[in-house]
Records
---
Amino acid sequence: MATRRLRPMFVAKRSYRLRRLRDGARMLPFLGAFLYVLPLLWVPTGQTRDLARDAVYLFLAWGVLIGLTALIAARLRAAGNDADDPASAEDAE
């Protein structure tokens, strides 16, 4: 019987983390849409809206989305720069 070469059960940590960062970047628009619709859901029927509170919330949500995007972009950029490093070639195997 010929022996089959066994593939590793898990992928390298670096490539796994890169994939999860990319997945997180792809989910940000959906998170943003949810955060922007959320103020419509929290006002009970029959009450008036507090537009000042809603405006503050929307700007805070916008700031959080910008911060998350900057963080993910910086980590992806750093990971891309590490890919050019020959010392990290062992992770690619």
---
Amino acid sequence: MADIFDVVADPTRRDILGVLLDRETSVPESHGEISVGEIVTALGVSQPTVSKHLKVLRESGLVFVREEGQHRYYRLDRGPLERLEDWLIPFVSTDAAADAAALAGVDAAGDASLRQEQRAFASALGKAFADTAHQVTAVVAATKRR
């Protein structure tokens, strides 16, 4: 299964997710379901291309599919996107530093009495966040080049 960042990095897949979200919000009686043909019409992309991207979205858990005869109806599964959002929040929150300090048990200004192991933990955590931020930046840069 592809990494969720790889999945959402593709603009066509993001467009499909947008169509699914639009269906969910604008036609509530549809329960968010939309046929492949309607997605093709909405995007103006070929049916094989849409099907290929829907397969990736399905395998990554971002969409549900319901089969009815030869027809396939897709709808958005918000679960993976919510987990992605939870992961991203510390990086985009303006209060990230204050949140990290609160989790470490100190005020936002810092506390000179931190024990050595707390400092080591904070350092390791900071390095992990920096490495992850670098990976996200690389994905975003790759997406912009496409």
---
Amino acid sequence: MTHDTITLGEVALEVRSKNAGPFWVTMELFMRDEVSYALAADASYVNEEVVAALYGVEAGAVQLFRIPSLNVVKISFPRPISQGSLRDRDMHAGQHHVPLALVRVPAPVA
């Protein structure tokens, strides 16, 4: 039996990342409704280990905040390269959300 999947980006209202100071990145999954929030909040799909693997950071440093009243999952982790340093390729962390948005989850049942 196969299950249809969809990306978090496809099921979310918005997935964004932003600079949270020179040493941290914050990402937010704004989900459309309770059903899509349940997918994003499910620790089987979005957890510290998944984020660590996507962004090359220590799982123990990843902070996850699930906010069901807003249908939002917020994720913060230390920047691998500090903001503005010579090797920093995204000073405002505006593109860090892309790998998270591509995480596959089961398609919601209509």
---
Amino acid sequence: MSSLRFRRAALIPAAAVTGALLLSACGSDSGDDAGGAEKAGSASKTRQLTDAQGRKVKVPSDPKKVVALSEPTLDAALALGVEPVGTTAGRGQQGVSSYLADKAAKSQVVASVAEADMEKLAALQPDLILLDETTGAKKTVDKLQEIAPTVVTAKLNENWKTAFTDTADALNKKSDAKKWLADFDTQVADTKKKLGGNAGKSVSVIRWQDGAPSVVGKGEGHVGSTLKALGMDRPKDQQGASTGHSEPVSLEKLATIDGDWLFLGALGSKDDSQKAYEAAKKVTNFGKLTAEKAGHVVVIDGSAWNSSGGPLAARTVLDDIKGALAK
């Protein structure tokens, strides 16, 4: 409290001061009470931003209870040191994506990729809700906005680095995201120098599910863009943009998933991926693949490679490639 406020207070009659103290003891919606003015003022500060849907949204300058309803927004928040109070289950999983589970141990699952549980979400009393167009919750933005300020951070198929930066902006951590990305690009450059004889080799990325493969990681997502930055090639049928999150491949065309290296995962943890690999090896002609014969099949944490993408997923992809291919 400033000296000017103290001088003014001295002029107030005793009865008025007593009344003011009683009101203060009961609490104040304005946040102007002497005991908590600074704290309340900080908590009430807001910023206005325009989200990916063109909506102007007032968000808290320092959000304390964030809910992230998509894989990329959860990933981004955790990369920036923010653990949401509520979040989404990973794609094809009951809980948080396994590659994020340790960092999101306290986050309550209140949504799936398909939809959010409004009742569970509201019970958390969030002060900021983040999502993007990779989740079905995008259809209920108006209802979400009634619970807390809601920001749609990215359009479907947005470049993951742009989506990360925009999510960071909603959290008022854009400078932190810039530093994170600079460090990531440095790691990519360092890994590229260490590829040695694997430089420029073809890399196939598949998900093995229900007895057959699906191609994932095409285009400019966190998988495709990282492989491209490393100078890695892709098999012919894995080039160009994807027609969906994944593209099934019939067993009759198993040879089309072959490459110098084959990264294989499942919708789940690395243990799930190992089980998928064991199942794949029993399929006719899988043993004839160049990658399999050369011992170049790499079992991965599918929850990261098959997710909608984010900075921590991209770093997992980079770490897996570095561990397998770098010298």
